[in-house]
C-alpha cells in the first residue's frame, strides 16, 4: 500500500490506505455517532471506495439511519476501535473515522450535521456550516 491516507485500529491488526483525496469531511452529533465515538460527536472523512484498501479483519455493526439507509460501522474485533463506516445509500464512499487516521491533520472538517443534538459541553464549530439534522443532498455544501 502506497496511498496518501493511512490509518487503522488501536492494536494495529486493522490497517487501511486510500490512494485518493478525501471528497468530504465533517462532524456528526447524531445519537449513533455519539455512542460509537465514546464522546459528543463522530468525525468522518469520506473517501472513494474504489481507492480504499483494507488489511486485517473487521466486524461490522449494521443499523438503519434516519434516512432509512443502513450504516455499517466497521471496528476491530480485537481492540474494539472504530475504523470506518459504509452507507447503503452511497456505496461509492467509505467514511473513515478521523480518530483512526495516522495523520490527524489530514482531516479538514467542512460541515456539522445534527448540530441540534449536540451536547452543551461539545461545542459546534461556528466557522463551519451547521445543520440541525442531515440536510437534503441538494442543500449540502459538499456531496456526501
By DSSP (H or I, 4+ residues per run), the number of helices equals 1
Just give the CATH class.
Mainly Beta
Largest sheet: 7 strands, mixed
Shape: globular
- CATH-derived topology: Metal Binding Protein, Guanine Nucleotide Exchange Factor, Chain A
Cα-atom Rg, whole angstroms?
A: 14 Å
Descriptive report:
With 144 residues, this protein is mainly beta. The chain has one domain: Metal Binding Protein, Guanine Nucleotide Exchange Factor, Chain A (Beta Complex), CATH 2.170.150. It has 1 helix and 10 strands; from the N terminus they run βββαβββββββ. It has one helix at 31-37, and strands at 5-8, 15-18, 24-28, 42-48, 52-55, 59-64, 70-75, 82-87, 90-97, 111-113. A 7-stranded mixed β-sheet has the order 6-7-8-9-4-3-10. Strands 1-2-5 form a 3-stranded antiparallel β-sheet, with no helix packed on it.
Helices and strands, with pairings:
Layout: E1 5-8, E2 15-18, E3 24-28, H1 31-37, E4 42-48, E5 52-55, E6 59-64, E7 70-75, E8 82-87, E9 90-97, E10 111-113
Parallel strand pairs: 3-10
Antiparallel strand pairs: 1-2, 2-5, 3-4, 4-9, 6-7, 7-8, 8-9
